[in-house]
Design brief:
The protein is of the alpha/beta class. The chain is 28% helix and 34% strand. The strands form 2 sheets. A 7-stranded mixed β-sheet has the order 3-2-1-4-5-11-10, sandwiched between helices. The protein has a 4-stranded antiparallel β-sheet with strand order 6-7-8-9.
Length: 254
């Protein structure tokens, strides 16, 4: 799990995802953070889509990410005495000298972990960093098999101004590796830079999960108490679910 975001993708990340993602999961995760009295860790903190709001609301929150470019954007948003709260670490082997009451890995973090041995290491590493009774929450999408097989072909998922009179457009294409349960996602950015059109491409693999695979993975980990929700409103899984929201809890007696 060593995928870094190019600097230009980090530059436009907030603009794009505050529009297309905040209304989906923002309130769910911020509510979980607000209800946590102790320390919180956000894995895959990125540019701080949750982190900055949580910190401003008084949360004792820390963040890790593997992308220097994303962390660079986040650090520029923080006061100097708060920068030490974020660090470049990997979910598989991150380390802190203290524990957390809540660890979140939102927006598909675990889907970036390709190998099953690393997935288990990641979950158990989180477990070791939780206080008794602490929670670990991560999400993946429910696979839409028709879309996975067919793929996406230059779908424009964002187009808008990043500065007055300057536009940016992002298109997405996907190709599947069904035997490996992997989707290769290809992004293309086009933007106006001082009157000249610029283009940059970026690709990354995402590992998709099925329900019972997720259950087996968690049950094989050190967690013994978990549930899977079907949406960010707290509803159970159903045929209409588009999300797997996995909530694992460490035993209070440990």
């Amino acid at each position: 799990m060593s995928q870094d975001y190019p600097e230009i993708f980090a530059r436009f990340y907030d603009l794009i995802y505050h529009q297309i993602r905040d209304g989906v999961d923002n309130e769910f995760f911020l509510n979980e953070i607000r209800q946590t009295p102790g320390k919180v860790l956000e894995v895959g903190v990125g540019t701080g889509r949750f982190f900055v709001d949580a910190l401003e609301q008084g949360a004792d929150i820390y963040g890790i990410d593997i992308s220097d470019s994303m962390l660079g954007i986040l650090k520029n948003k923080l006061e100097k005495d708060q920068i030490s709260r974020v660090s470049r670490q990997n979910i598989i082997d991150f380390h802190f000298d203290f524990s957390f009451d809540l660890v979140i890995a939102p927006f598909r973090v675990l889907m970036h972990v390709q190998e099953k041995t690393d997935q288990l290491k990641a979950i158990n590493n989180v477990y070791r960093h939780l206080n008794p009774g602490g929670k670990f929450i991560f999400d993946t999408f429910v696979p839409d098999l028709k879309q996975i097989i067919k793929g996406l072909d230059n779908l424009t998922d964002f187009e808008g101004e990043y500065e007055p009179g300057k536009k940016v457009k992002r298109t997405v294409s996907t190709t599947p590796e069904l035997i490996n349960q992997r989707i290769n996602v290809h992004f293309r950015l086009e933007w106006d830079e001082d009157g000249e059109m610029k283009v940059e491409n970026f690709s990354l693999p995402l590992r998709f999960f099925f329900r019972y695979e997720l259950e087996h993975l968690v049950e094989k980990s050190d967690f013994s108490d978990y549930k899977i929700l079907g949406d960010y409103q707290g509803n159970d899984l159903s045929e209409k679910s588009r999300e797997f929201i996995v909530i694992c809890r460490k035993s209070i007696q440990e």
